Amino acid sequence: MSHSQTTHDTQAHEKLQDCIDACSECHETCLHMAMTHCLDEGGKNVEAGHFRLMINCAEICQTTSNFMLSGSLFHKDITAVCAKICEACAESCVDIEGMEDCAIACRDCAESCRQMSDEMQ
Length: 121
What we know:
This protein has helices at residues 3-41, 48-69, 75-94, 100-120. The chain is mostly helical and 121 residues long. Helix 1 runs antiparallel to helix 4.
């Protein structure tokens, strides 16, 4: 194996690990914020569309991480879907007071998943 191939493999592994980490962080943040902050605050925080999106985002992030960890051939597809859902969740969170951390985690995850999906095409 050439040095450039080894470097490429290392970079690919690092990007994969970064995406797994971003998905895990987003999963934890969305689930925690939904179950603590949103339920405690009420109002806009628990409107059906927003709350459902937060739970969907947490679930897709966990699933996406699992696909990547298992070496699934479908992780390119799931990262593309995850990016869309995370971006939608970030947009929903940005308009609600106290949801900044969730919006940041979602945007970071969306960007990482987009890069992973694009790279795999």
